[in-house]
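Troubleshooting: if your tokenizer reports a length mismatch, compare your output against this known-good record of 245 residues.
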Amino acid sequence: MENAQLISLSRQIALQRQMDVVANNIANLNTTGFKAEQILFEEYVMPTARDNDFPSLDQPLSYVQDWATLHDLQGGAVVQTGNELDVALNGNGFFAVQTAGGERWTKAGAFELNNQGILVDQSGNPVLGAGGPIQFGPEEIGITIAADGTVSSSAGTKGQLRIVEFANAQDLVREGANLFSGGTPGPNSTTRVMQGHIERSNVSGVTEMAEMIRVQRAYESIASLTQKQDDMRRNAIQRLGDANA
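Known-good structure output:
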């Protein structure tokens, strides 16, 4: 395969990966607390053989390389719901939840109570307080959550939501739509809790649709170029065959 086709193929693979990320962002446009992703690409210059006996130096070949996926951690719109179990975070912190795989971190604060009275997220994962999951009795009413995460009810103080912050949140690894793992969780220093609010997805539908169109057009352009290269090579082979006949 010619170098031009390999370079085109590297670009097409990168665009395909970018389209997958854009499609996932759009699919989670209405997911509470969802954080969009972005792809970073870099140029990979392929080393070429060189020798002083060559009539001219070989030209370097530039390929496209999928370098990294970044989390867009900008805050989404905070919407007031009035639900006493809806909680948004004003700051860089994350809620801690307990999953089968261990502790995970999330921005999605649309909580509820399961049939055992335990505060859980929308996937049923217990929301962690400083001393573990927070549980309410069937007779308790009037749940309040203070700005520092202290949870109270008619039975008194129930605990304090465990809010964690990260020195470098880009180290986190996404799991599903709303959970993150990894990183080195530190204590909350600046994040405040807002009861009766939820944080929407930070995906901009207009921006993502425009990006999808741009990626699609770029992919079509590369595909067209590759097709023209194939046609040129086919015609060249055919003419050589006719001349030798």
